[in-house]
Each structure stands twice: as C-alpha cells, then as structure tokens.
Amino acid sequence: MDIEVPEGLNPALTALGWLVGRWEGTGNGTDHEGKAFEFEQRIEFSHNGGDYLYYASQTFLLETDGAGQVPLSMETGFWRPKPDASLEVVLTSAEGWTEVLIGKIQVTRIDLLSDAVVRTETAAVGHSAGQRLYGKVEGDLMYALDRATTEHELRPHMWARLKRI
Description:
- This protein is mostly beta strands.
- The chain has a single domain, classed as Calycin beta-barrel core domain (Lipocalin), CATH 2.40.128.20.
- It is built from no helices and ten strands.
- The relative contact order is 0.19.
- Its EC number is 5.99.-.-.
- It holds the Pfam family THAP4_heme-bd.
- Belongs to the nitrobindin family.
- Its cofactor is heme b.
C-alpha cells in the first residue's frame, strides 16, 4: 500500500497524509437542472502543524467552443480526523452554503455524508444534502459527489480524476 506521510505532518493526520498536496484534472457533472457539463479542477490539501487539513477547491467550466474557462465554483474547508478513523469535514462554498460532513477513513478511501447544510438567502442552488467518495486509484485522486437540493433528491453531481502536480 502506497501511504504517504508528508514531513512535518501532525501525527493525528497520518490517515489523511496521502491527500496532502496539489491535484489537478478534469471531470464531468450534471447541474441542478440535469444538464451535463465538463470542468477543470484544482484542489489543494495542506497542513500547518494543527490537527486538521486545510482544503481549497476551484472548478472552471470547460467551454465546448474552446473559448476558455469560466469560474464554476470554489469551496474551502477543514478536514478533521478522529482516532477511531472517523472524519469531520466543514466546507464553505462561494455559492452561498456551508456543509458539515461526517464519514470514515478506510486507508485510501473516504466516504462522507452530510450532517448539516446551512444556506444563505441568496445561495445559487438550494443545496440540502450531499455524499462524497474520495479515493486514491493508481496514484490519482478520484472522487464522486452526489447532491440533493430543495428541488431534487440525492443524485450524481460531479466526478473527476485528478493528478498530483
């Protein structure tokens, strides 16, 4: 098993060490209206000696006409593992919501489910619940994100394969 423990990583974060770094790639998605889209994504997991990872993700819509990238979304947050391999994640999106997810770390697989979602009055989408799966596959970071809104039940929203850069 290829488990990485970056230098200076707080021992409480050992189970998440494989995530630390910068990841980039492309993915696919389905918006809240059911329309398909392609995107480019940049994710960074970093640490500062604390017992949490700092997470930042930016996605850019890939235009089919080759016109370039359009900002799609951005989220930041904190990933806080617990000694029993459970995980708490707090994310805030530029779209106007904050989500608390809870889950389990299984070596290089992480399963997360929404525990709570809070939206602003002007939130771009009525995000109400989610579930996420992250995994390391052949050295890449792969994930799938399902989302429910006030208009539809939980369904696939975004999925991607990202390479460490």
